[in-house]
Structure formats: C-alpha cells, structure tokens
Amino acid sequence: MKISDLGERTLIKKIAQLAAKTVSPDMVGIGDDAAVTRLSQGSWLVTSKDLLVEGIHFLLPEISAQDLGHKSLAVNLSDLAAMGSIPRQVYVALALPAHLDSEFVLAFYEGLTALAEHFKVAVCGGDTVASPGPLVVSITAQGEVRREEVLLRSGAQPGDVLCTTGPLGASAAGLLLLQADIDCPTALRRSALQAHYRPWPRVEEGLWLARQGVVTAAIDISDGLLKDVQEICEASRCGVLLREEKIPTHPVAEALAPLYNQAPLTLALNGGEDYELLFTVPRHAFSALAQAYQERFQTPIYMLGEMTQERKVQMITKEGNWEKLEFTGYQHF
Ligand SMILES: [Mg+2]
C-alpha cells in the first residue's frame, strides 16, 4: 500500500507497535513529543549518529527492507561497542521516496527491531518524512559506559599489540558479488552476502573488553583495516607494523577473491564493513586476555601486529620484506 494511502498517522502507529516490544513499560517511547529514558547511576552517555544514503551506502532494490533495517542498526551498535558501552536506545529517521510503499517501511522496522530486541535496545523514537530523491536512513544510538571503562582511539602506546575480534574481508567479498555477479557455490554466495547485508555488531565483546581494563585503544572496522588502524595511529600519535602472516583473512574472502583476480589480503586490508573490533593492548597483557576471551566467547582474538614509535603504517610480508602501506579503501568524499 502507498504510504499516502495508509496515512502518516497509521504508519507511525504500526511502527510504534513494532518498536513497543523493545521499550520497557517505565519508559516513554514513540507517541509523545520526546522519549524519556533512564541512566544507571554512575554511567556516562555515549551517542553515535549515522546517515545512510541510497546509492552511496546501499542499493535498492538489491538490499531487502529487512536487511537494510538490520544493517542500519548494526553499524550504529558497532560504534557503541567500539566505545565499550552498553547500547540502550536508538532513534530512527527515514526520508522516504514516493515509490516506496508502507510494507517496505514496516519490513525495515521488522529487521531493525529484531536486532534491537536481541541486544535489549529500545527503539524510542524518530521521524519519517518524504524524500524528493533517495531513501535516507539516519540513526542515533545511545549507550552507557563507566567513565573509567570507556574505550577511545587515543590510548595506544608503541609496543602495544594490535588485535581484532574476527577474520576480515567477507563483507568485501559480498560486495564483489553485488558489483559483478559470477558463478560460485551457493553456500559461498550465501555466506558472502550474509556478511555484507547482516553484519553482527560485537556488542558483548566490546563491553567485555572494556571491563578487562587493559585495552588501550579501540575502533570498529567500518572503512577497512588499513583506514581504521590509521585512525588509531593518528589519535594515539604512533604507527603500526602489521604482520602479513598474522592477518586473519576470512575463508569467504579466500574463496571468492581469486575468482575476481584479487588477493584475499586486499579484501582484508581495504575491504571494510567487517564490523569487527580493532584494539590494542600492552604486550604483557595479551596472552591472559586472549585466553579469557577464548573461554568467554569460544572464538579467538587475532594479534595482527604491533604499534610503533615511527608514525607509519607498515607491513612485514610473508617473505620478510618491509612495505609501507597506502590506504586504498572506502573514501567518504
Ligand atoms: Mg566506528
């Protein structure tokens, strides 16, 4: 049904019904002039805002409404996770082109609220307007953190080791498929598209890491390992030496990259949208942290290099050569 036939009030009522399952009874969610939520004692508020524009960040009709809802929230929760915070509430604003119908909007909210429910995040409000151009999704996400536990980009020291919570490049492999489809096994196709469309934010992992008190800097991998490690380097005024043999390329990237005459390593370094956490810890703290992490999450953390005094991004190749790396991944402008 056309949104204009359904009417804005009815659409918002339907959105409110979907969001209601994420909002606790003592909060004021959708339906008043503003939301009312509570902060735990001693907590600080963490806020992240993200804007996704059709044609730049996603393509219609390639991405389904549910996947778009999931991904739009996932990328915001990932930012909150990188700060070591517990996500609490989100606000969702949509600028809707006339060709989209109300079913699309509600399916978007189904995808979004399913992920919100999983992490006990309240969908508290937002806005819907008509767009004369592309679909625009804007999400504001808020979380809480103890001031002494907040993870920033700026605390890495030369000698700290650089780690990530998972293998990289699967989302970029999915993007290759979307840009130029080729014949490949169904399971591989499904995994690559799943990685691209339904990234899973490392919410529990970020919170856990923050509570260990040894992480010196953190960021989530949204633009690609090289670009994001550069952000840590700049904020922490240091450099990094990556070890090629240690960089965890995702099996999906290993399988798909060669079909496009690309190196899996390129997808891992420059691909982006992995939404794994990238963080630094003092070398002496690494093995205890890695062991405790493995016990808690049944999956390893990967050490991919170390921070250096020299303010460059460098890599020791498998052959033992030193290379200075240039970032070639996603540029916003
Ligand atoms: Mg981020």
Outline the structure in words:
- The structure is a single chain.
- Helix 4 (102-118) links the parallel strand 2 (86-97) and strand 3 (122-131).
- The two termini are 36 Å apart.
- 37% of the residues lie in helices and 23% in strands.
- The protein is α+β, with helices and mostly antiparallel strands.
- Helix 3 (65-82) packs parallel to helix 4 and helix 3 (65-82) packs parallel to helix 7 (203-212).
- It contains eleven helices and eleven strands.
- The protein has two domains: 3-149, 2-Layer Sandwich (60s Ribosomal Protein L30, Chain: A), CATH 3.30.1330; 161-324, Phosphoribosyl-aminoimidazole Synthetase, Chain A, domain 2 (Alpha-Beta Complex), CATH 3.90.650.10.
- The strands form two sheets. It has a seven-stranded mixed beta sheet, with helices on both faces.
- Bound molecules: magnesium ion.
- Magnesium ion binds at residues 79, 82, 219-220, 222.
- Magnesium ion is lined by residues 79, 82, 219-220, 222.
